[in-house]
């Protein structure tokens, strides 16, 4: 599996995604996957995205990653991702919409729009709580 870095505002669901991916991979890959996967997931603090002065920290950290994941909470008002925020990075960026279980169809569509505007080339709709959409994410990370 690729080494991934999660970027998103505080409360977006980044840590929950990490926990879910680690749990899933125990099921998918068995034993040793925990340790390996534990080293493959880079969870970043929301402040890195919320404060412009910390963008540089995200860029530096992204050197460690193969894929960057922009995380957008479907239930959140607005987005912290500037248009074409992906251009800050030299790695492929995909988007994950979280909390689809708790969002309306309109909210989810808006979250997709935010991620598209940010420049994410592939977007996954998920709910870690309902366990939805995560297989596709795992598949993508294994294939790319
Ligand atoms: N309803 C719902 N809540 C979620 C989901 N994912 C995360 N949460 C909740 O959102 C809150 C913030 O999640 P967390 O992973 O800590 O966000 P982080 O700050 O981005 O790391 C927690 O209370 C989670 O339980 C989801 O798919 N659905
Ligand atoms: Mg967190």
TrEMBL record:
It comes from the Bacteria. GO terms for molecular function: ATP binding. The keyword Nucleotide-binding applies. InterPro entries: EutP_PduV, P-loop_NTPase. GO terms for biological process: biogenic amine metabolic process. The keyword Ion transport does not apply. Belongs to the EutP/PduV family. This is Propanediol utilization protein PduV. It comes from Robinsoniella peoriensis.
